[in-house]
Structures are given as structure tokens and as C-alpha cells.
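Input set for joint prediction.
Command: fold jointly, output C-alpha cells.
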Amino acid sequence: MPVLPNLNIVPFISVENMMDLVLSIGVETFLKELSTYIEADFRRWETFDKVPRIASHSREGVIELMPTSDGTLYGFKYVNGHPKNTRSGRQTVTAFGVLSDVDSGYPLLFSEMTILTALRTAATSAVAAKYLAPENADCMAIIGNGAQSEFQAIAFKALVGVRKLRLYDIDPHATERCAHNLQGLGFDIRACASSEEAVEGAHIITTATADKQNATILTDNMVGPGVHINAVGGDCPGKTELHRDILLRSDIFVEYPQQTRIEGEIQQMPADHPVTELWQVIAGLAVGRRSKDQVTLFDSVGFATEDFSALRYVRDQLAATGLYENLDLLADPDEPRDLFGMLLRRQALREQLASR
Amino acid sequence: MPVLPNLNIVPFISVENMMDLVLSIGVETFLKELSTYIEADFRRWETFDKVPRIASHSREGVIELMPTSDGTLYGFKYVNGHPKNTRSGRQTVTAFGVLSDVDSGYPLLFSEMTILTALRTAATSAVAAKYLAPENADCMAIIGNGAQSEFQAIAFKALVGVRKLRLYDIDPHATERCAHNLQGLGFDIRACASSEEAVEGAHIITTATADKQNATILTDNMVGPGVHINAVGGDCPGKTELHRDILLRSDIFVEYPQQTRIEGEIQQMPADHPVTELWQVIAGLAVGRRSKDQVTLFDSVGFATEDFSALRYVRDQLAATGLYENLDLLADPDEPRDLFGMLLRRQALREQLASR
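C-alpha cells >
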């Protein structure tokens, strides 16, 4: 039997490790590199095992598991969504995830994913916009200036060329903070007093609000011809952001229809409302933007393959950066079938130490 | 906003912590106490959200997620099953799990579960046997003397009163090791040369083999009247241990029929083959053993509530034992919506440190 060292150890990327990883690579470069992984995995969409995420709903929110596999690697994310969490100083969304080796079932990586989810969500939005936004789009409205907003702005700068931002939030402090955080990154930023003001002249409208309810962040008259809508905030049953009339006028692009019909903006529509799968556009099997006046809508809810891509990307950075800890996660008896004997040997060691 | 200290920290029970926890409590006491949690949770079965585990099958094995919730706590386990893993010095089954607060979605505990799964599987088997085994059963055959065998033996000693063990494995070294590991624990142990020899005179037959195939560990003529069969090894599609004729003669008890019909011994039977849910027996809503001559079969595949009970139990030991580490798993910005600002502050800290 070959001797495999440290079979018990799984690399762990803590929150601090993740921050240092992002900062050492640079947020914009990180988003750019991450987007190539996301795009590559969308392109080979058909190699993935796909299921709608497994949701456990409660009064205050939802806890979800999002697994997928490409036959070589298996990944899953745990993520919660609890809009009222901010009242107790907690995050609305927290997440962690695991990447495993399919052939052995052994985890290869355990990682914080609260920060990583924010990055992969923004990167995915920007990948979609690369294919769907009008040509030379450089002005984006962001409605909802919470935890996701800065990441969206930077991803759209890096991948789409957005330079002008029009920010609006029902909480002016959120807008102020977002504008402040984005200072010095090369944006022309305007804080707006209303959604109407924010969308005026915008080529791209990003909605990223967090309330768990059917809200109308955008009404039909606010959406001019040729606009690309990046709807990020509606992501569970009973949580939408767009008026139904917008959906009727838009060409709608989704990640995984089976999941989006449950969770996305299109939960407002009949089950057979036509949508195009984003991966088909990326793979060249379907057309994205057809005309200058077309309204395109990326009805983003987040899908397991994006987390898989993100875990793949950060795993590929580990060797060079060393930004991880070793976690004693897996039982590794000298003899694999002798789990109980491992306890007995530990007992002997304890007794030996105690008698010293 | 109340200041909550250490919102980022999640207690982590490593493999070493788990071994020390089990040893400091004592294996037998641990199994006894754990079984009270398992039994209590079976008794309130109807309060749990239940889904069949989410399996990702591959050529070599399976990776599964097993979530459940009682409305207050949410738990899930990641577990793999890869029979050929032992060839590369790895465990057939490894596992880890998380217990979370439903109201906030925040994880409360992250734990190794390779060892814990072995313990909860044995405790569940013994709980079932308390209700199903013949009166004064004190002799158990264990066919398949791998990682699960010693735990089964000790659980049945603690909960059912088993004192005599009849061990058989196709690998005599496995039997030898099992017998050796159980020395000095008060058993009368016989290593047997065949399954036939092992089951002779046994009141309880435990099958715990690991091959991923439809095997026939027990044939009909080996099962005498009044015997209780504890079938642990058949736990995924295409993996069974008992001849079909035994199922036809037995009263079959299962954890969660929707899952057992896919994974258990009863995958060999029509979808409407009658079974009794174990929780109903424990709750007094269904009869367990009715007569001296009845053959009872616990078709165990392992269910999410058992892992939930196990996580609940080990969590209740943390404060007294201190056997855990603190894991920096959750992003905890000073201002919950300001995830990006957390990165900026980290950047400032890094620059400050670098300039010293």
C-alpha cells in the first residue's frame, strides 16, 4: 500500500486568508481571472451534474445547499439568506464551500465563501453582460447599494468597460458608503435621489436589493430601449424586483431554468415563458443581443457551477500564495478499516502522556 | 446595534478533538448518551423537514449531502462512500457536518463526522434493536468486520445487553483485528470460519459489509425464527446484502421509506412492499416485535436526523470539555452590509504592517 502523507489534512481558506488572497491578487484582477473560470465552465455546461439547490425555508430566511460535479471534481456551497440579519449585526448572506475529488470522495479544499460568493456573483453578472449589454456600454445604474454593489461595479469595469455609475438605495447611507468605497478606482460616480434618476442614461441597470418580498424596484416606464438589466437581488420564492411588464418586453437569459423558474424574476411568469440559457450564448449555440433596441435581462439567481468555478479558481492559487491553513478534518487510521483501533491508539497515547 | 463578539468564529471539532471527546466520555457512555438524543429525535419525527439525501454517483462511489431541520436547528452532513478507497490507504466512508441556527442561518458548529458517523450508525442500530430484538437477546453475529463492527458490538452491549459475539469476514485479518480491538470489554468472542457458523445460535445478525454490489451475505436458510437482522451495509442503489427471500419472511422496519426504497435492502422489492417506520415504533404508534418467532429486519441506510442528533449531542459537550478549535469561517464586517469595506480595511492594515 502506498504511503500517502497527511490524508487527514484538508486546506482551509479562512476569511482572513480569503481577504489576503483577494488583496494580493487585486480585486479587479481576481474578478477578471475568476470570470475566465466561470466562462470556461459555462462553456462545458453539459459535463456538469445539475440539480436545483436544496433549500430549507423558514420564517426569517433560507439555508441552501448547492452541489454540482463535472465527473472529476465535486463541489458544494452552503449559503443562507436572512434579510433581517443586519439588525443583529450579522450578514444577510454567509457561505462556505467544499471542493472534492470525485474518485475518492475526499475533500480537497474547504473555504469561506461569503466574500467569494460576492465575487463570483459579480463576475457572473459581468460575463453575462459581455454577451448581452449594448455595444460600448459605459454607464451603469446600481439600485440597491448593499454588500454586492462594489463588486458588481468593479467586475463591470474590468469586463465590460463601465466607467460611469449611478447609485441609488432607499438608505442614503448605503449609497454614500458604496460611493466612498469606490473612490479612487477610476469611476465617475453620481449618488441619485431616486431609481428614476439613477436609470436615466444608463446602458446597464443592476438591481441588487435584499428584501425578501415581491418588490417593484423597476417599473416598465423606467426601462428604455436597448438597455441590459442585470437582476441580481431576486433569488428565492416570493422575492422579486422587477415589474412583470418588463419581463414581457425583455429577452430573458437565465443560468439553470429549472432553478430560475422557482427563484428568479420569472417566477412571476407561466412555467413555459421563453428563456435562453446563458451557457448556450457563451458556447455560441444561441444568440445573445440581436439588436440595438432590444431589452435584455439576465435573471440571475446564482447557480452551483459558478461556486464550483470559484472554488476551482481559489484552489489553483493555493500553491503560489500559501494562503490557507491545514485542517485536521478526516480520520486517517494507519489501517483504513481500523477506525476503532485509531481510538485505541489515541487512548494509549493519552495514557502515556498522563503518566509522565 | 448590539455588539456581538466573534460573529466570525465557528467552533470546529477536528478528528483529534473528536477522539479525545469520545475517550474522555468513554465509548460506551458516549453511545448510550448519543442514543438518547437519537431516540428523542425519532420520537418527534414529524417536526423535521425531511428529504432523501442528495447523491452524486460516480464510477467509484458516491458523495452525498444529508440536510434536515427541526425549525430551530438545521444540520447537514457531507459523506462519501468509495469501497475501493482502502486500496490507496483511504477510508471507505469519510464525513463532516454542520449544525446551524435556523433564525440567522449562521453555522453553530463544524465537525468531523467520520468517527461520529460510525458512532451514530451503531447507536441507531442499537436503538432499533431495543424495540425489535427478541427478549434477552445476548448473542450477536457480525458479518463484515470492518470499520463499523466494533462500534456495533459496543452499542449492542450498552443498549441491548449483547455479551456473545460471533464474528465473520471474508478477510480473516479483519475478524482478527475486530476481536483484538474488543478484548477486555467484557465480550465472549468467537471468530468464525463462515457466515453459517457465525449465525448459528445468534439472536441478532448484523451485516456490515462494504462492497458496492448486490451481494448475498445472508441466504434464507441461515435465518432462523425469532431472529432480528440489523442490515447496515446495504446503503445505496445497487448495494444490498440479503437474499430476497429473507425480505419476504421478515417484518421490515426502516428509517425514511422514501430513501430506503432507493438505497436499502428493499430496493429489491416492489415499491409498495409493506414496511414500518421505526419512528412510529419508538413513538408507540406502531408495534415492533409481535411474537417470539417473528423475523424482524432493520433495513438501515442512515438518515439525516441521526446525524442531526449526533451533532446536537456533541455540541452539548463543547462547553464542558472545551474540545474544539475556533474557525475564522464567517465574514464579519463592522457594518454588516459593508463587505467590500472589510476588504479595504484589511488592505489598510496590510499597508500599515508593511510600512513598519
